[in-house]
Automatic annotation (TrEMBL):
Presence of the UniProt keyword rRNA processing in the record: no
Phylogenetic classification of the source organism: Bacteria, Bacillati, Bacillota, Bacilli, Bacillales
GO molecular function terms listed in the Swiss-Prot or TrEMBL record: 2 iron, 2 sulfur cluster binding; 3 iron, 4 sulfur cluster binding; 4 iron, 4 sulfur cluster binding; electron transfer activity; metal ion binding; succinate dehydrogenase (quinone) activity
SUPFAM superfamilies: 2Fe-2S ferredoxin-like, alpha-helical ferredoxin
Name of the protein in question: succinate dehydrogenase
Pfam families: Fer2_3 (PF13085), Fer4_8 (PF13183)
Length: 249
């Protein structure tokens, strides 16, 4: 299949403090090339459409199979993974930009520290006391295991936060991903022991009450995680937890 020339208009930024600017590139596209492949072509020969040699465009990626979440960016106005965005399926010219919700480090590279701090806040893990062999843990019923697996697909890509209007510089909202992880770990047979601590993490400033129920998150999640279902479930659980605390139970 013959190669064709495609145009990419990339929003660039030299460092966290500098102003963003747009730069246009033209590359030869191959069949089944994804956005990562296009960026690699620019990196190989960093010359813009005016013929000027420029610094290579910087981006982040790792697994290249929509598992790590590192290559999140805005592609033609929508947040998604660059590794699964095929050039032939995108409207031309292709416009690439970093996600707005997170601080930009350089070009398309963002700092997702906010997401990881949110996971720390809600203790999104199963604590293990010691390293000795405790034997097999309790088993989950198959029905519970199936929906828990859906929640476990979260790759901390940040797309749901980018789509959420309540996650912005004027709001401390932790976002839907961390809320859904609380549901995952609180239903785990071992994780239930620390369920109240995770609920407390959701009840503070920037917690679940900051959700405006726009439902953008569930529509944009690349893994199809039922985020709004998790938010509704955690709303119930935090309400019950608050009532129990009020009555001293």
């Amino acid at each position: 299949m013959p190669e064709k020339t495609v145009t990419l208009i990339i929003t660039r930024q030299d460092d966290p403090e500098s102003a963003p600017y747009k730069e246009e590139f033209k590359i030869s596209s191959r069949q089944n090339m994804n956005v990562i492949g296009a960026l690699m072509e620019i990196q190989r020969a960093p010359v813009n459409s005016k013929g000027s040699k420029v610094t290579p465009v910087i981006w982040d990626s790792n697994c290249l199979e929509e598992v790590c979440g590192a290559c999140s960016m805005i592609i033609n106005g929508k947040p998604r993974q660059a590794c699964t965005a095929l050039i032939d399926q995108l409207e031309q010219p292709i416009r690439l930009a970093p996600m707005n919700t997170f601080p930009v480090m350089r070009d398309l590279v963002i700092d997702r520290e906010f997401m990881f701090d949110s996971l720390k806040r809600v203790q999104a893990w199963i604590p293990i006391d010691g390293t000795h062999d405790l034997g097999p843990g309790p088993r989950m019923p198959e029905a519970d295991r199936q929906w828990a697996y859906e929640l476990s697909k979260c790759m901390t890509c940040g797309v749901c936060l980018e789509a959420c209007p309540n996650v912005n510089t004027g709001s401390p909202f932790i976002g839907p991903a961390a809320i859904s992880q609380v549901r995952l770990f609180n239903e785990h047979p071992t994780g239930k022991m620390n369920a109240h601590e995770r609920l407390e993490g959701l009840m503070g400033r920037g917690g679940i009450t900051e959700c405006g129920n726009s439902q953008n998150c569930v529509q944009s999640c690349p893994k199809g995680i039922p985020l709004t279902t998790s938010i509704a479930a955690m709303n119930r659980e935090t309400t019950k937890h608050s009532i129990k605390k009020f009555f001293g139970n």
